[in-house]
Structures are given as structure tokens and as C-alpha cells.
# Entry
Amino acid sequence: MGCCESKDTSQGLDKEKIKLFIQTDNLFSLKSIYRYAVHKDKKFDINSIRYKIDEQLMVTPLGLALLLGHAQIFTTIFQDMNGDFLLMESLFSQAGTSGLSVICLNNYLVLLQVYLPLYFSNLNPNNTSKLKPNNSQTLNLDSQDLLEKTKVFLYTPIQLSVECGYISIVSFLKAYASNITLLPPEIDLHYIDEASGNNCALISCKSNNYNMIKFLHSQCQADFNVINNYSENAINVLAIGSIENSTETSKCLEYIVEKIGIDVLYNYQETLMMLEDEKSISYVERKLKDKGINVTKKELNGQGVIILQKRPISNTYDTGNRFTFTRLFPELLKSTQESMRTSENTVK
# Structure
């Protein structure tokens, strides 16, 4: 009994040390503890270790390295410690996400460069696609509230990067995709979400991100002329998104109209009703006047004539672009920071 307890205790210590060295990005110590563990037990398998992140997600050491974005640690565990890529992805899948989504949501560019070749050599993307729930918002004229949650739709990893504004991630995925014959939705810049009808171009408009809009248009030839499933064009989507983020709305609006050539007349009533930024409102009113339509937002508010397509209400689960490491795994982040401080104190 005593020997078994001693062995279990020893394995537990190795497990915690491995976690500590992954968290603190201490590659030298990780290699040392791994060699020590294998020396004690020839059958030691690093894939047998599990770390509970939250109620839904359990990860192996390889998955922990990915969550933290430690590319060198990730590579070493995979190549030198026989880290099981498929097992890692299976655990992510059970939690409703994927390694690629985590990487794209957290802007782990260096890790992405290591991960993508493994992803395509180990998985069949068409059979393992796990997309992240997101919610959109729209007017609800039958409700006292201006906005209501709407039908859940799903974003691919590249669409998540667009939503978050990670141009470097999108650029890398675009370049990588150019060498793939059968492009999976996960990294397809032109993929259209089935539920919402949004593509990367419309998602950038929803985010009101000027640099992303300009990048997608000038460098990626993204299609901004798509009309989504709610009969909204790029300007309508921009106006809806401006309710939460209006800092760059006027710049985005002018670029979409002047450079891309999106028709400001399309659903112009909805556009004016959704816009709150005075500069943007004045711009649309001026453009409409140039086309022979003399109307103002104030007049539309008084008339109450907007009729929008009804959309079903979804559940309250809303991750949006907040499904990131620092928000989804706060306890792990706290543990990582504490471990780093302990490591620094030890060095001193």
C-alpha cells in the first residue's frame, strides 16, 4: 500500500511540475522533468495527463501548451514527447471548440505556423469542423427593447480572426490557403456562414474595423457585395455593428461607399435608423440627397415606418469575440501568473 501511495504521489508531483513548466514556458525544465519521469517509469505517457480547465474543457499537456500559445513547448511535446495531436483535438471538440479556433481567437501567429501543417496532416477538416456560436442583433419593433438576441450562427476560425481584427492571422491563413486545392471552410476567406449569410467581408463591417475592411478589400479581394440572409448589405451590417462600436464607423462607411462602391440607397431607412454617430448620419443623408432622396433620421424616427424581417430569438449563450483565453480560462491564467512569479522568486 505504501509503495502504491508513494508512486501515486510521485506521479502527481511530476504532473504538477509539467504543468508549471508549460505555464512558465520553461522548455529546459520541461525536458528535464520528462526525462526524469521516463527514467522512473519506462511506460510513462505524457498523454495520460489531464488538466481540468473548466467544467467543459479537459486538456492534455499538448493542449495546455496550445491554450497558452507557447509554440516551442507545443512543438517539443509533439515531436520529442509523443504528444497525441488527435487526442488533443478530440478533447477540444468535446468542449465545443478546436485548436485552430483557440489559436485564431487569441492571435497566436507563431503557433499557427507550427500548427497548420499538423492540422492538415492529422485531421480531415471536412469531418472535424467545430465552429463557435455567435449571436447577432437587430431591431425588434414588437419589443420595448431596441435590440434582441437572434438566431445562433457559427463562425469559422478565419472568420473569428476577422471579427477580432487579427490581420496577421488572416494574412497567413490566406497565403497558406493559396496552396490548397480543396479549401476547407475553416480557412476559406470567402466562406459564407449558412445561418447568417455573412462572409468575412460582412463580418469586418459588423466589427466596424477600418483596417480589416481595407485589408480584405485591397489585399484579399473579399466580396463586399454579398447580401446576407436578412437582406442586409455591407452598409446595413456596418450600421447594426456601430451600435456596439462606432469609433471608426464614419471612416468605414466612407470607404465602403467611395472605394468599394456599395449602394447607399439599399435599405437606406434601416441604415439611418441604426446609425448613432452624427458624422455617419450626416454622410448618409448627404449621399441620399445627392441621389434625389431628401430624408433625415429625425424624420424617420417620427414616422416610425421601418419594417424589418423578423428573426427568431436564440438562447442567451453569447461568446462573441470574448471566447478568448483570458476570459474563458481566467483561473488558468491566474495560475500561470502565480507560477511565473514563483519561478522568478526562485531564480532570485
Observations:
- The chain has two domains: 1-97+329-348, 132-322.
